[in-house]
Amino acid sequence: MELLERRVKHRERDGGETQLGPRDGAQWGDGDPGAGKVKPGAVQQQLREPLAVLLVALFICAQWALVQISVHQLLIGKQDAEFNSERARKHLEQLTSVGPRPVGSVENEVLTVNFLLQNVEQIRVDSLAGPHMVTADVQRPTGSFSIDFLGGFTSYYDRITNIAVKLEPKTGAQHFMLANCHFDSVANSPGASDDAVSCAVMLEVLRSMANLPTPLTHGVIFLFNGAEENVLQASHGFITQHPWAKQVRAFINLEAAGVGGKEVVFQTGPENPWLVQAYVQAAKHPFASVVGQEVFQSGIIPSDTDFRIYRDFGNIPGIDLAFIENGFIYHTKYDTADRIHTDSIQRAGDNILAVLKHLVMSEKLADSSEYRHGSVVFFDLLGVVVVAYPARVGTILNYLVTVATMLYLAKKCSLPRNTGVGYVRELLSASCVTLLSWFVTLLSVLIVALLVTLLGRSMFWFSHFYTSVFLYGSAAVGKMLLIHTLAKNLYYTGTRRLDLADLHFDVSVLLWCCVLVYLTQRGLCSAYVPMLMVSFPLATKLLLSNHFKQKGASVSYAVLYLLGLALPYVHLMFLIWVVFEIFTPIMGRSGTEIPPDVVLASLITVATILLSSFLMHFIYLARSTKRVLCVLGVVFSVMLILVSCGLFFPYSANPASPRPKRVIVQHTTRTFHALDGSVERMDSGLWVNSFDYTGMSHITPKIPEINDTIRTRCPEDLPFCGFPWFLPVKFLVKKNWYLPAPAVSPKSALEFKLVSKQETEWGAVKLSFEVKGPSHMSLYLLPHAGASLSGWSFGDGTPQFDLNGEYFIFYSHGLDAPTWSFWLEVQPPSDPSDEKGIISVAISSHYFFGEDRRTPELEALLRRFPDWTFSSSWVSTYHMYRY
Known about the structure:
- By secondary structure, the protein is an alpha+beta fold.
- Strand 12 and strand 13 (about 680-690) form a beta hairpin.
- The longest helix has about 35 residues, at about 420-455.
- About 50% of the residues are buried.
């Protein structure tokens, strides 16, 4: 296509229309060439800049307001009396009244277990006259498994606690649904949202279903598991060892990644689309997204749930639900019952009760294998309705939209006033302009984020999220506007503005269509998002084509165009809200190595690019962009100055909306043994870890002793750097501090003994050990150069997840656990050295509760931390041996 041979002359006036002459060259019109021809001298409008900005701003704000109303509208419609949220709240308050419930503590193993059993017994008694029977069983399993989480490690558990409650018709049942929650918590949190509220909901759902007047077709097993925070141990104990597990056909898992709000379906399957269909048909307050499922299962989010255990070790399908709001206080002392709204409990109870009732009355539960194959595309629209259809239908729909797009573009090429090759050339050229604007925008915003990081102002947005939008968002929007404005005024010098608007609309359709084809080819159900982003704008543009030809960018055209974008954009806005709701708090616990401003700036830029796609149309419909560029420049400059001056402090101790800095403090004693068993060296100190990128920069002014002079290094010849890591996260938290302190002397001291050392007939060395210690211990193995770990007594006997030459075994036990016995088999090097040995074995003990948990020195340091910090703290020991 050729550019116009002469430049169109026009004048910009603040209140008038632009008079355009007839077309003298190839143009990029759309629609039927015979329809809506522009008469000579016809007036076509361009939007005044203030009006264009106002329309786009109102559109974005209205969409965001709809999303906010949706996510905070917990209940929809009139509620029935089947689920009693007030009674569930009383359960929640009683569960959390005992305080933190770590595995092995009296609070978890005795007080909470007794409370649950008493309530289950009362439900059993109350339902005796009905058609159902309730049976409770307390399981205390012992087992071991390996899991590829946090780089991969092996878990061993001994006599942890499960309470399994079977609800079935008095005539019995052969097929069961499993409903799972966990009543344990991390050591320094009351765990109201994670996961006491789910157990409270399950108790009330059990009561409701046990008293139904009509017998259930199938049964339900309610599993109150007591060791999920110990990396999913209790669910493994149930699904691999409990006799009832063989009758489970599907499950619902209730979890939390935040505190309160709506519970979202973020995982389903594998396959078994009938489960999603059951949720769609039965849930009273639907909230679900297949995008969340695919993001979560990609491993981007550093978390996991019991869903993985039931899926991988039980080979059963399920539905995973979790609370995701306010993740800032997840796993902190602020996760209390009063922060969970009663309406959150009501909606969760309504949904779980309705879905369970639907499933246990379904014929599909009895023979789910017949309905196993296939995946489902599912998403909700503002929490009002869930759309779900088979993935194969989605594939067909995606390709139909792709074909429609190609036909639309092909028709544009074939118009008499267009030359096909010229149009394609200009379309590709405009696509390059758009892609260049994206690249330059991302690069520019990342430079700003790096500058903020180098200035020491990282995470300024942690307590003031919208400041990041004003800084990084204004930079992103401004840069993109600037590039398109330059292209409009310098590159497209001889082209009508309205034709440019039309051309860049086609670019947006083409690029979204490329994303649609790519995701569809990858087999991702999330392809429905670009499908919506192509189909609705394309249909809108076709419907408005005659109007656009006759009148140009009139106000009525702009309003109708935006209305046509409303549905895909409001859903895209919702997905953007979910991303920021999840990832912004995660930046406060993602370790010291990931620059959070780079991550957040990237997310804001990507969100800006996605939202701008069909709104860039307005850059070319507007007469000018000078004013909006000036405003964005001022906003960016002011925000950069304010951020650079340190006006926005990252953390907050505001009781209504706390944003704490997470710190881990262990008072530990380290002992290093030589090859002959003698003590080589011994030291003690307060080992401090920051869980975010700012490290101790904000703490040092308050506690000057914690400074860079006591930063630790990681000796490569010591297992896990010679420090008592509770979990294998040293790759995330490489900056830590070690403040000298007196030795610790726990009353229940660790006992570690080499029982035997023998050489096998195949030349390996077998080492057998016995350990007696607290409920939580970590074992680290580091084979020396040339040696290899060839076998052990954990899992299936084959060592797994070599973490750069090291192995991590996580151990926990409940009450009255016997001595922990295990063995290792090491293949020595071809030329073993008697001086260095063949393997280093280290073990750390962690005292999370009881009188051994605190020391005067630890308490004194904790009192000095500012109130905007949340300190997880305990006493630990570290012993290293060479063999």
